[in-house]
Request: fold
Amino acid sequence: MCMIAAMTVCLTLAASQTSDAADRLHAMAKSLSPVPPPPTNPTNAFALSPAAALFGQRLFFDPGLSRAGDVSCSTCHDPTLAFADGKQVAEGLNTGTINSPTILGAAHHRWLFLDGRADTLWSQALGPIENDLEMGSSRTDAVRHIAGNEILRAEYTALFGPLPDVENLDRFPVNARPGRPQWEAMGTEDQHAITSAFVNLGKAIEAYERLLQPGHSDFDRWVASIDAGTSSTELMSPAAHRGFGLFAGDAGCRQCHFGPMFSDLEFHDLALPPRDPAAAPLPGRGAGYELLRKREFAADGIWSAAPGSTKARRAAGARIGPEHWGSFRTPSLRNVAKTGPYMHAGQFETLSEVLAFYNTLDGQVRRHHHAESVLQPLNFTPDQLADLEAFLKALSGDPPAILLRKPRRSNGTEPPKSAE
Amino acid sequence: MRLSTLCMFTLITLLLASGCAQRPGIKDSTTTEDGRFRVTWWQTPPRPIEANSYFELFVEVEDLTDDEEPYDLRFDATMPAHRHGMNMVASPTRFTRDSWVVRDLLLHMPGEWVMTFDVTDQNGVLHRASETVILD
Reply:
């Protein structure tokens, strides 16, 4: 009797250990999938409005928001390239220093831009329009572009009410934006009216961007099959399965790449080799934090619909430490197979180059002695690296096709009311 | 009889091994290094702290020697192995004579965090209590 009992316990223990390991892996998989809807953003009262999203989608693909009418958001966030641009660093009106990130899933981020200098999608969207490296326009001209286009004007006024009288070039001069004499010459009320309309454009763009979820991947299909009790291994290749085991285990990737976006949404310094060894190193979050403090369109500022919200309070509570100098936000790994080149300055062309870096940490440049130290060389075999890569490639999905282009009138939504 | 004892034993061992017995954030207590104050803290509502998920701590400070009102409480958390701290500023708000609420806390990575509670007494002397929590 005693023997049988002891054996039963031993067997149970052994069985429970293997099933424990599988359960742990499954639990980890479920913490990464599915992608939930993005967190709410009370600072934008139009965030969930379908009409605002349609208008925002129009703006996203509209080069008319740039100075010379030749650059739109979609120039650098190209829907055929998973809303990145395939270039090492962005090229708008001028060449930048930062790689264009995908905006699929951007609505999940706590901080926008790789240095986190914006805390809401709507405020982020206003940056490129007035940035001379990107679209180089001005808020006054952006609003004038809306007023001068029948469809845009009709959609805008239906959502937000009347536009300022921007046809009057004496009151609303060309090129007028903060920091320029044309802007300083304007009356305070006119400035306020322009900025107010400009903010509405950002809020509509956010409504569109919130719909750009990363899309269902092979990994998500496999995770869904766990719950269905089938745990089908056909849904993801054997290499990707092994790669997931490494990703969640020995490789330590999930110290930073975790949660449904495969990102802790915070900042780390991988001590990456610079793209151009001669150029000054980029300060990353070190500068992003200062810009966040000084930003015009803050979550707790006058243009926010909920300056007292939890979101606004948390954004205001951000802390900067010496370890943040040179750090960048952990990118999402969803769709990563489609968004190369990689890292903030496009340091690596391919995923295997990224993994080769994590494997040896060769070329790391420690820029200061306060840097955090999380990474250890993986010392994986080529087969293990190939498995990890196969896993990363199983994270690709597509958003609905209807969101991938300039909207047509017959979008299944209300045709815009004709202009007055 | 014996079987059920054995099963009980196995169950308890398994529970302990899987860490169900004590999860950080439910309720915990520690004293300052000099033994002067006892600091008791729990998450409101009580539930385990999760990596990268905002939470709120309720902290009670008890003067074990003089029953004096503590002057102030500061909270911080760091990851010694990674050489970094939190990415947000913790600002405890006094709730009663001996208790504080610390809102919007965020331990953004899994791993070992050391939380520190610095109690200042009425003479301006600092007494530190610390507690290690491991998030998975």
